[in-house]
Amino acid sequence: MADYKKNVFMPSRLTRGNVVELVGALNFFFKVSGQRMKDLFLRFDNVNKVDVLGVLVLYKFLEFSVMHNCFDSPTFNLTYNKYLDNEISKYGFSNLIAALMNNKAKEHYYKNLDTYVTADFILAPIAILRGKNMKEQKKKAQKEIANYYGDNDTTAMILQVFSEVFQNFLSHAETDNRSIVVMHGDKQKIVFACADNGIGILNSMKANPRYASLKAETLLKKALERGVTSKEKTNHLGYGLYYINEVVTRLGGQLILYTDHYYLYNRSGKVSVSMMHNWCGTIIYVTIPLHEAITIDDIETEYNQDIKINFI
Amino acid sequence: MNATIKLSEYAPSIGEEDDGKRILAEIKHSLLSNDVVVIDFAGIQTLATICAKLIFGTLYNELGKDVFYNRIMIANPTRNVKRSIRLGIEFSV
Fold first, then answer.
1. How far apart, in whole angstroms, are the C-alpha atoms of residue A279 and residue B58?
2. What is the ipTM of this complex?
């Protein structure tokens, strides 16, 4: 395997700004699925900056390698880096990564990710899977958000974004049922990150004949439009990404979608699509400043007068 | 006869398709034996669009415009929830 290297040096920054570099360093994992390659050393010696997206993407790479038998036992070796250890712990991934490395109790730790709240900080890593356990965790996270941000439009906006991200990954991943959504925020801003190794947003969209012939760059931008969905004639409205994109644009936040060989970047309303090394699946990253709240009601200023609803 | 379905057990957010299906089934069941069903959104801050379409889009289409208005009443919705319900119906018709 030409792409296989025994020593893989990680970028010094595992952050939002370096995700493309991180994907470039590790995306050979996707090519050695099932091959049980020997003696992989992931070198984290130089890592000195980490954020929640970097940790999430790193975790998904490690998880993919274990789930798809990319490497022989031990599955991979990590160089010790105290700073990185602390950051991984801060974002709630320590037990998950330790379980992956030991190939033990992965499911237990995955299903028991937990929300963490302090006076000025909220972190909610939540496994996206079906079943009672997941519902309880999700509900707990939602209640913590409501408690932390109060009964107001900011909470409504955050919960709406959370619901749309969560439901999208639950519905669209298809080939990966181990997605994780992470919220990380304070009173000034909130960050959402979610990643899967599913079929990816482009393949999902192309399943709809209406969009099958569109180029990837066009299709990614199309996915942000109101009413565009791969799942027409279902209960999906094609509103989730549109809403998130509107919020980000109006409040000066960021939305990044990484999928396949492309990433779409909306920074304060300026949208671009660029190429990258392959990510097998989809990653979404959303940053929302909280100086103001944009709810659905702020976006939808007109409505169909023929539809009468008996609000009391 | 009127019935009230309180959704507070889902607070603060109704976000999952499965929950939408459960709520729709409860409303339909209640409609069998009641003239009016009041759906009480007290405590609910958001209603995911997928659930709005599933619940209210389905009811609007199955009951028809007038019957929907006369037999389905919505209590204590926030402005955000109101708009989600409208969207769910608008995307269904």
1. 37
2. 0.96
